[in-house]
Amino acid sequence: MTRNHTVLDSPFGPLTLVATDGVLSGLYMTGQRHRPAEETFGERGGAPALDEAARQLGAYFAGERTAFELPLHLAGTPFQRRVWECLLRIPYGETRSYGELAGELGNRGASRAVGLANGRNPIGIIVPCHRVVGSSGGLTGYGGGLDRKRRLLAFERGAPDGTLF
Question: Which pTM does this prediction carry?
Answer without folding.
Answer: 0.90
